[in-house]
Amino acid sequence: MSQSTAWNPESYAKNARFVSDLGQPLLHLLDAQPGELILDLGCGDGALTEKIAGHGCAVIGVDSSFPQLQAAKKRGINAIHMDGHQLCFQRRFDAVFTNAALHWMKQPETVVAGVASSLKAGGRFIGEFGGKGNVEKIRSALHVALRRHAIDPAPIDPWYYPSPEEYSELLSKAGFIVTYIELIPRPTKLPGDILGWLEVFAQPFTQAVAEPERARFLKEVRTELATCLRDDADNWFADYVRLRFKAIK
Ligand code: BEZ
Questions:
Q1: Is the CB of residue 130 below 6 angstroms from any atom belonging to ligand 1?
Q2: CB of 134 sitting under 6 A from ligand 1
Q3: Which residue segments constitute the domains of the chain, with CATH numbers given?
Q4: 3-state SS string over the chain?
Q5: What's the whole-number mean pLDDT along residues 83-93?
Q6: Is residue 201 lining ligand 1, measured as CB closer than 6 Å?
Q7: Ligand 1 centroid, distance to 197 Cα (angstroms)
Q8: 18 CB within 6 A, ligand 1
Q9: pLDDT greater than 80 at residue 214
């Protein structure tokens, strides 16, 4: 059974602020115009939603995490609780924007169909998320350690990381014209120890391990990753690979 992630805005801000800090190229690709209405799908704590609104357009954020929505609302964002698999807008938006959210949505056809319905004719779908090979070293260390604890990682793994070809095909089948799609390897320096990253992002894996064994499990994962994701000065990196795209309805 897949476990869910409890997003904690404080922990997210401490360990994962780089996720929105590195969103500038995607904002550039969005090219939001004054007067437009834009949907931010998986808006999280609203850090990028706020920047989009700064372009003089109206933005609605949707997210499935109540604590993150609360953090977004504190920024003055119009944020609504909605699962990305259940978008219920009809031809309303000039653009749908999404950063670092789609890889958590394991029924991508359903999500893309909802995005298509949400857009006006000619509207744009601009996004970035984990692509093929994303955090492969971290994912592999988690899988190996889970198996060592006699747990099958397959039903637990929460991530969807398609190739550009796979995602292009999916978008085309939903009626989009893909004008740009690229896989971008982006090893990213973390603000602290890999344990901070695991605390925020690897909850489905760690929660699968019973409490008495969990600390040992995390130690095993950390030890394995230190050989490939930690440098001599004790900096930790995540082996991110982004899939960035622009598609027109
Ligand atoms: C990502 O942004 O690619 C990502 C973040 C957390 C977990 C997995 C992937």
A1: yes
A2: yes
A3: 9-135+159-190+239-248 (3.40.50.150)
A4: CCCCCCCCHHHHHHHHCHHHHCCHHHHHHHCCCCCCEEEEECCCCCHHHHHHHCCCCEEEEEECCHHHHHHHHHCCCEEEECCHHHCCCCCCEEEEEEECCHHHCCCHHHHHHHHHHHEEEEEEEEEEEECCCCCHHHHHHHHHHHHHCCCCCCCCCCCCCCCHHHHHHHHHHCCCEEEEEEEEEEEEECCCCHHHHHHHHCHHHHCCCCHHHHHHHHHHHHHHHHHHHECCCCCEEEEEEEEEEEEEC
A5: 97
A6: yes
A7: 9
A8: no
A9: yes
| CA of 248 relative to ligand 1 center, distance in Å | 25
Residue among 171, 167, 126, 102 at smallest CA distance from 28: 126
For ligand 1, atom 1, the nearest C-alpha belongs to 130
Q: What residues form DSSP beta bridges with 38?
A: 59, 95
The closest-lying atom of ligand 1 relative to the alpha carbon of residue 197 is 6
Is the CB–ligand 1 distance for residue 205 below 6 Å? no
pTM of the shown model: 0.95
Percent of the chain residues topping a pLDDT of 70: 99
